[in-house]
Specification:
InterPro entries: CheY-like_superfamily (IPR011006), HD/PDEase_dom (IPR003607), HD_domain (IPR006674), HD_GYP_dom (IPR037522), HDIG_dom (IPR006675). The chain is of the alpha/beta class. It contains 16 helices and 5 strands. Helix 4 crosses helix 5, helix 8 packs across helix 14 and helix 13 crosses helix 14.
């Protein structure tokens, strides 16, 4: 079951990265202390505050929001922008289970959340997933803010995903991904996990596996510049919204090319993962030999992931049904690679 999370903040725009990060654990409700309080909150398994506790009114507002959770023993993580002794004492006085710096590195924050939610300790697969998620969060945040992508964090994420694939337990990876709520994170982690398992099944050497998984991690990086209202829209997109979405391959391509830190195959995957062998894809309408093997692999994983994703507005396809849909696309996809992909997702 997804873990319901409550984020209390007095700076909602600056807390957007934190909100998206928390949504990795499950549905995340946000209370903005500058707006009227919402009543009737569903029970939460974790409460996080990103609030200036030097403001007495804010302290009382946080205390009110966490009162029910305190009675039920819900873990409360308090993030402080100023870790002075006075504010640390204040955080503990209102019931913090843990007090951390608001500027804590993503991986350390995720580790602490994991500790609060699973005191008995995480499994190796869960630890790998946390590491992969941390790198993904830093990457998407930097991309959305127009900053250089954090190469070391991306490499750490790729390494964690490949080590998870070594366990040959794709179902366990998918279960972890599905337990989290943000659509963009979920899709990127699904595609990356599938691509890593695919490359492992094909017997790729370590360097080639790293290349394929890196391409999968970065394939949708252009979506970091697409408004969240469009990415998270549950209903049918308008023609204008579709046009905006279809810009993400070129945006991602230009982003990676401009930074100059990524292999050609990775940059190609960002631009061409919606291309089809019969020339009906976008943005360039490439055909057959114009599409590399790495891109062909990422396209298969990307489409399969979209079919099995769990959304509030659509039921996921079963593995057999999703794979049959890929086969039904005929000449659009590489038939040899698709045959090899079958045993990865639909074991005999």
């Amino acid at each position: 079951m997804p873990i319901a999370v409550l984020l209390i903040t007095d700076r909602p725009e600056q807390s957007l990265k934190l909100e998206r990060l928390l949504s990795l654990w499950g549905p995340c409700d946000v209370v903005d202390l500058h707006r009227p309080m919402r009543g009737g909150q569903a029970p939460k398994r974790l409460v996080v505050s990103d609030v200036d506790l030097s403001n007495r009114g804010a302290v009382e507002a946080v205390r009110s929001q966490i009162a029910e959770g305190r009675r039920k023993g819900t873990p409360f993580l308090c993030l402080l922008r100023d870790q002075s002794p006075r504010l640390t004492i204040q955080a503990n006085a209102i019931g913090a289970s843990a007090v951390l710096s608001a500027d804590l590195p993503t991986k350390a924050l995720l580790d602490e959340i994991g500790r609060l939610l699973a005191p008995q300790g995480a499994s190796p697969m869960q630890r790998q997933f946390v590491a992969a998620s941390a790198g993904m969060a830093d990457m998407l945040s930097a991309a959305g803010e127009g900053k250089a992508l954090p190469v070391a964090a991306i490499e750490d994420s790729v390494e964690a995903i490949n080590r998870a694939a070594d366990d040959r337990d794709l179902d366990a990876w998918l279960d972890l991904v599905w337990s989290h709520d943000d659509a963009t994170y979920q899709h990127c982690l699904l595609v990356a996990g599938l691509a890593a398992a695919f490359a492992h099944a094909l017997g790729f050497p370590e360097r080639a596996r790293k290349l394929v998984t890196s391409a999968a991690v970065l394939h949708d990086i252009g979506k970091a510049r697409v408004p969240l209202a469009i990415l998270h829209k549950s209903g049918k997109l308008t023609a204008e919204e579709v046009a905006i979405i279809r810009e993400h391959p070129q945006i991602g391509y230009e982003m990676l090319l401009r930074q100059g830190a990524f292999a050609r195959e990775i940059i190609e995957a960002a631009r061409s993962h919606h291309e089809y062998l019969d020339g009906t894809g976008y943005p360039q309408g490439l055909k057959a030999d114009e599409i590399s093997d790495v891109v062909r692999m990422i396209t298969i994983c990307d489409i399969y992931a979209a079919l099995i994703e769990r959304r509030s507005y659509k039921a996921p396809m079963a593995p057999q049904e999703a794979y049959a849909a890929l086969v039904g696309m005929g000449a659009k996809l590489d038939a040899d690679l698709l045959r090899a992909f079958g045993p990865v997702v639909v074991p005999g």
